Structures are given as structure tokens and as C-alpha cells.
């Protein structure tokens, strides 16, 4: 994406300032202390200041800007994703905020304030609260989350899913209206995405020629659309899921406020971001995808049951706080059964994300942020990717979630 011009940025800030009813406004472009990988659009932190009713007012904002160059819109994927996210912030999360006002502290879900959204084609942007000012940071110093970060992430995810069930219970018509926008991911609703995940499976097979993994990858590639459909229509229940909840889309707040100590301190809260693929799906999809894409094999093998327990226990508590019996809408048995149903689609999605994050996607409109330039770097990246993929398949097989004979 080309760099945003000063004139364009000023125009975006001007519209935000007008909506915030600021007079005599000005802004300063800031820099992130830590920055996770962002593949769709550009993130620009600013401090927006002005007066309102004679008093000085200041906002810490992150502007999320869509690509303004139509070259990046050929496939339509970016346009669809920004349309989905602007809708989520202006409608779905607004409804969740109303629910959260009635829930106790233990069931609060962190939602960045949304100051303004613009949906004009090639000029889409979202003006969001800068959560780094609130002490939240991306997890950037390791490729995979540790146990504490994973547990906090799953608690936040359970609260997100609970809000969906509560909204459906309290305002079924509003829920149905939202579902007409947050549609399931299938070949008919997003053929471009399905083409991408199939292409990444093709690339994976080339890295595992004639290995014991090849037959499984071949079956996943052949029946790809079926697995994504099953994650919606062959499960115990569905809700409005995040759809892309992995390490890169989570920020954490820690016990201490000194940034240099974050690496050694435990996270106390998680904030999920990037709602571009929010959709109807099984809650188990988000859970399985987060665990597969964002933890290593050692952690999964040691703590999987603890991870599943903390998620479901948080779901139970939050639903109870919202006046809903978890056994009615999403029982533990449903959850455990759904984990197996969604496993193939989750692996396919995780493979796509990890191919990208390992610096192996060199072409297309969505490319790796850190592409390797030397032969040695590429070979090391490929071996690392292969180790990760092999570990995911071994774990899914060991846990009984995937069997080549059952696919």
C-alpha cells in the first residue's frame, strides 16, 4: 500500500474531529512502542486535541485506514473485510456495550471506543481508542503465546461468545439483522478466501513431498469447502465469532505499568482487535484456531485440557451473569463435540496464517510483512514452518480431532 499523504490524513482527522464536536482542533502523529503484524490497511496513532464548550479535550486515537489504491481492491477481499469491520464497530459492538452495562466486573469484555467510521469505497477508515495508552500491548517478543497469555485470551474469547448468546436471547430480531451481515464463511459467501486457503494448502503440499503428511493435506485440500461448511451447519450451536482470533489480533494489559518489565509480568486482561472476519460459526472454531495458531506443541500437549476448561468455565459464568443457562444454549458436551467438527477448518486457517507470518507469502495483495531475501533465510523459514505444521497435525491426531481415515 502506498504511504498515506499528509492531505489525506488531515482530511480523515478533520472528519473525526467534527464528529467529536471539537473546535480549534489539531493533531500530532504518534508512534507505537510495539507493533504487531497488520495485513489489511494501515494503522496510524494520533493525539487529537481541541476545545469543546470552552474546555480543552484530548483523544488518543488509532486510525485504521483501508488501502486507497485500487490495485489492492482487485480481488474485493479488502473491501469486504473493511465493510465487515466498520459494521461490527458501529452496530454489533455498540449492542454489546449496552449489555455490558448490566454485567458485573468479572464478565466485562474489553471493547475499544469507536469514535468514527467511514465506509466510502477506497476511503474507508475507523477511528478507534488507542488501547496502548490504556496499557495494552501486542505480544511481540515470541512467536507463540505462553500459558498465562493463552489463558487470558481464552477468557476474553469466552466473554465475546457469551455476549452473542445474550444478545440473541434478549433481542432476537437485532441478532438476526446482524447475522445478515456477519454471514458464515463458505464457498458461496467468500469464494476468494476459499481460493486463498486452498492455495496455501497447495503450497504446504509442495513442502511435504511424499511424506506421511501428504495424504492428509490432499484430503483437506479436496474437501476444503466441506470443512468450513461443517463448522457452521454440523455443530451443536453457533454464535457471532471473531473469526480470526490469533496472537496478532490480541493486545494484553499487565500487572505492572513499566513497559520494560512486561516480558516478566503476567497479563491481567486481553483486548481482541481486528473484527474483519466476524461471522456466524461454532464457538469452538475460535477456541481451536487460537490454540492451534498461537501456541506451540509443547504447551498444547501439557495444558490442552486446562485451556478448554478455562474457556468453558468463563463461558458458563458470563452466561449466568447474563441470565442464561449454558446447558441450554451451548453445553459442555456440545463444545467438546464441536472441537472435533471444526478441527479441519481450523487447521486450514492456521496453515494460511502461519505461512503468512513465517514470511513465505511473497506474491498477491496480502503478503508477508517480513519477506526473506537470502536463500539461507528462506530455507530456515521453510523448515520452521514445516516443523510447526507437523506439530499441529501430530497434536490434532493425538488428541483425536483429525484422522486421515475419517476426513
From TrEMBL:
Domain CHK kinase-like residue range list = 126-321
Q: Which domain of life is it from?
A: Eukaryota
Return the Pfam families for the record.
EcKL
Which InterPro entries does the entry link to? CHK_kinase-like, EcKL, Kinase-like_dom_sf
Name the chain's protein: CHK kinase-like domain-containing protein
Organism for this UniProt entry: Spodoptera exigua (Beet armyworm)
Q: Signal peptide location in the record?
A: none
Amino acid at each position: 500500500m502506498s504511504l498515506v499523504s499528509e492531505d489525506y490524513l488531515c482530511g480523515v482527522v478533520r472528519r473525526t474531529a467534527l464528529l467529536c464536536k471539537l473546535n480549534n482542533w489539531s493533531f500530532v502523529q504518534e508512534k507505537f512502542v510495539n507493533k504487531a503484524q497488520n495485513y489489511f490497511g494501515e494503522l496510524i496513532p494520533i493525539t487529537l486535541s481541541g476545545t469543546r464548550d470552552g474546555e480543552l479535550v484530548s483523544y488518543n486515537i488509532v486510525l485504521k485506514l483501508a488501502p486507497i489504491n485500487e490495485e489492492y481492491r482487485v480481488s474485493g477481499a479488502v473491501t469486504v473485510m473493511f465493510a465487515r469491520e466498520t459494521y461490527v464497530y458501529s452496530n454489533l459492538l455498540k449492542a454489546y456495550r449496552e449489555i455490558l452495562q448490566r454485567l458485573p466486573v468479572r464478565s466485562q469484555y474489553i471493547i475499544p471506543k469507536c469514535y468514527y467510521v467511514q465506509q466510502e469505497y477506497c476511503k474507508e477508515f475507523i477511528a478507534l481508542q488507542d488501547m496502548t495508552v490504556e496499557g495494552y500491548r501486542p505480544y511481540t517478543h515470541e512467536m507463540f503465546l505462553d500459558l498465562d497469555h493463552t489463558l487470558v485470551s481464552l477468557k476474553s474469547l469466552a466473554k465475546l461468545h457469551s455476549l452473542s448468546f445474550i444478545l440473541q436471547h434478549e433481542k432476537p430480531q437485532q441478532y438476526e439483522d446482524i447475522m445478515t451481515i456477519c454471514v458464515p464463511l463458505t464457498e458461496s459467501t467468500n469464494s476468494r478466501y476459499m481460493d486463498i486457503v486452498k492455495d496455501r494448502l497447495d503450497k504446504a503440499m509442495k513442502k511435504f513431498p511424499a511424506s506421511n503428511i501428504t495424504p492428509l493435506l490432499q484430503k483437506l485440500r479436496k474437501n476444503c469447502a466441506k470443512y468450513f461448511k461443517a463448522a457452521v451447519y454440523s455443530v451443536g450451536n453457533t454464535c457471532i465469532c471473531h473469526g480470526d482470533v490469533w496472537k496478532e489480533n490480541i493486545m494484553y494489559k499487565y500487572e505492572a505499568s513499566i513497559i520494560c518489565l512486561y516480558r516478566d509480568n503476567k497479563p491481567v486482561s486481553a483486548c481482541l482487535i481486528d473484527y474483519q472476519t466476524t461471522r456466524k460459526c461454532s464457538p469452538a472454531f475460535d477456541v481451536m484456531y487460537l490454540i492451534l495458531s498461537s501456541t506451540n506443541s509443547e504447551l498444547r500437549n501439557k495444558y490442552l485440557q486446562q485451556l478448554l476448561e478455562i474457556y468453558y468455565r468463563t463461558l458458563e459464568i458470563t452466561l449466568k451473569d447474563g441470565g442464561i443457562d449454558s446447558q441450554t444454549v451451548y453445553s459442555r458436551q456440545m463444545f467438546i463435540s464441536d472441537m472435533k467438527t471444526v478441527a479441519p477448518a481450523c487447521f486450514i486457517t492456521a496453515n494460511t496464517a502461519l505461512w503468512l507470518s513465517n514470511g513465505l507469502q511473497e506474491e498477491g495483495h496480502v503478503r508477508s510483512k517480513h519477506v526473506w531475501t537470502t536463500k539461507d533465510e528462506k530455507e530456515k523459514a521453510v523448515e520452521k514452518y514445516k516443523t510447526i505444521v507437523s506439530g499441529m497435525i501430530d497434536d490434532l491426531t493425538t488428541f483425536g480431532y483429525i484422522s486421515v481415515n475419517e476426513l
